[in-house]
Amino acid sequence: MSLYFDPHSSSKAHSASVDRRSEEYADLFGQAPVIFAALSGPRHLLEAANSAFFETIGCDRGHVGEPIGEVIPELVPQGVLDRLDAVYRTGVAYRARDGRLLLGGPGRQREGFFDFTYEPRRDAAGRIDGVVVIAVETTAYHDAHLLAAEQRVLLEQIARDAPLEEILTGMATAIEELSPDMIVSVLLIDPDGQRLRHGTAPHLPDFYNEAIDGTPIGEGVGSCGTSAFRLEPVIVTDIATDPLWKDYRDLALRAGVAACWSTPIQDADGRLLGTFAMYHRTPKAPEDKDVALSAAFARIAALAIERHSAVGARHVAQEREKAAREDLAFLLEASTAITSETHYSDSLQRMARLTVPTLAPLCAVHVVERGQTHRIAIAASTREGEQLLSSPALRDEVDAAVACALASGTTETAHTGGPCAQLGVTGYVCMPLATRGRTFGALTLLATDLPLDGHTITLAQELARRAALSADNAHQFTDRVRLAHDLQAGLLPPELPRIPGATLAASYHPAGEGLDVGGDFYDVFPLSADRWAFMIGDVSGRGALAATTTGMVRHTARAAARLLNDPAAVVAAINDALTASTVDEDQFVSLAYGELRHTASHLALNLIRAGHVPPLVRRADGTVEELAQPGLLLGIRPDPDFCPCGIDLHPGDSLVLVTDGITEARSADGEFFGEDRLADALVTVRTTTPTAATLIESITAAVTTFAGNATLDDQAALVVTAT
């Protein structure tokens, strides 16, 4: 491009040297991309300039020969002429980097950035006769630098998971600062994939943002709806005439926007995330930098939206995981608590209490027993709730729901109306309690505020399933304990008889939960001529066989004692019965059997010990004697030898008989209670004249203190005290 110079517009002072300089300027700057202008004289007349100069300031070459202050009047208030004057006056060059200038008149003004050099120009005599201006426009570099800085800020916000609205609003503000005549809007795709929702538009009117919130995605739906539908940029340079805006033209007019360029925001797989729109208040077509700006920030918006979605999805997943952990923890804790209740009704009452208020504010549990349905447990989070559960209207509706659940074996749900709604109950769910193919009850949860959601119902159904199994096990346990208790009661005397000149006391504590019949027993029964028989024993093993053996020993003793007037003969008869038994398993019995006779002054006892814990005699003065005569266990051989022992009990004296469950009770470190501690318990009894019952209490307390409440073996004791 040639340098332009008009010699006819200059005075004669511009001699051939001017022509020569012009030729030099043309050689240097005619085709250069830099901005060049030669100014002459103190008025800075535009002597010569290249095409880049005229393109930058936006005027034609007809202004050559005019003062630069008139050609570009906007430079005057910005101090440019003052700097030119200083260079012309002093001969000192002026240089500036990235200087800011506003070019253009009102309505078409633009911001530009330049690197300047103002050099003094001298004539052949060395006098300053003008100023040469050389500049390079750095606006694109400056904008790119600012753009990169804004992008970096936005990327940092994305990296630290800043809220999406904050990122998008920051992005819109940054673009509008880079291009003050631009208004930015971001719309986000709705989860249904059919509409666009408001994301950000800080400088569009609120009524406009509200109106386009929910814009359908489709052809002919403005710039954004169409861009989202086509998945490509849509440029509308004049909203007033473009058919895409026919349904939104009045809205745009009210908002004061006349052009809109929209770009789809897509992820790496091309999935639509939203739209990025740039509005203008006057009709306008985008420049190359606008297209680049739109593409760059559409990518950043895509990153922000994707990161927000990923963070949201992670948060949702974490919340679901947390909820699942809490549900599992609740079920495990509740199941453990219900299972810990060994009795049927207790387990169902615990279940009712655990559901409130975690699952619902009100709960009722019904069971079927002997063909009749009755309510076994209720729970409420408030006292008012307990009263509500007792309301006849509510009870009738719950009973009806329970009947349906029991009949169908499926969960019944309903929103209540009528009287129940007036009571404040908004709905209920009734689920059957079933195990092993049998429905034996129902769990009913009632809501008084929000309805019971599917998650709560599912959790309640799982709890009901687990609780039903635990309750059924507890029911079997209760039945087994009751059966064992009844059997055990049949093997012990219902009550001790009254004996003249004596008081008696006994105790029996089964091992563990009392599920099996124990092998420990005692008995006292009358004989002829003021004689009484007593015994205490321990059968090996537990359960049905031990119960059978215990019954055989007691019945044999009672029958033989009435026929044989000799304790040794009675014990021999018991041994014969044991050894003659056809039971496959060998059964051994330890036994202490004796007979007592009441005399005028004391009790006379004749005692046989067959492998049993040695009996103790506590005298009235507190001394304790051990009766350790030898004797084998019964059931080992047909003809054991027995060594009878005679004892006289005077008033205050006591005979103490125990089973090895007492002497072999263990402490926490495994030590046996032993016979010495048993004797100590008899010596240290608090009263000076202890009764048989007092001695039993002292023994029980000593064993409990030593070994705790848990017993590994049955414990039985029998005390006879002379009076």
Topology, please?
Elements: H1 16-29, E1 35-40, E2 45-49, H2 51-57, H3 68-71, H4 80-90, E3 94-103, E4 110-122, E5 128-137, H5 139-159, H6 164-178, E6 183-189, E7 195-200, H7 206-212, E8 215-216, H8 222-230, E9 234-236, H9 249-255, E10 259-266, E11 272-280, H10 288-340, H11 344-355, E12 362-369, E13 372-380, H12 383-389, H13 392-408, E14 412-414, H14 419-423, E15 427-435, E16 438-447, H15 454-490, E17 502-509, E18 520-526, E19 531-539, H16 544-563, H17 567-579, E20 589-598, E21 603-610, E22 616-618, E23 624-626, E24 645-649, E25 654-658, H18 660-663, H19 674-683, H20 692-707, E26 715-722
Antiparallel strand pairs: 1-2, 1-5, 3-4, 4-5, 6-7, 6-11, 7-8, 9-10, 10-11, 12-13, 12-16, 14-15, 15-16, 17-26, 18-19, 19-20, 20-21, 21-24, 22-23, 22-25, 25-26
Helix pairs in contact: 5-6, 5-10, 6-10, 10-11, 10-15, 11-15, 16-17, 19-20
Structure description:
The chain is α+β, with helices and mostly antiparallel strands. The protein has 20 helices and 26 strands. The strands form five sheets. It has a six-stranded antiparallel β-sheet with strand order 8-7-6-11-10-9, sandwiched between helices. A five-stranded antiparallel β-sheet has the order 2-1-5-4-3. A five-stranded antiparallel β-sheet has the order 13-12-16-15-14, with helices on both faces. α5 (139-159) packs parallel to α10, α10 runs antiparallel to α11 (344-355) and α19 crosses α20.
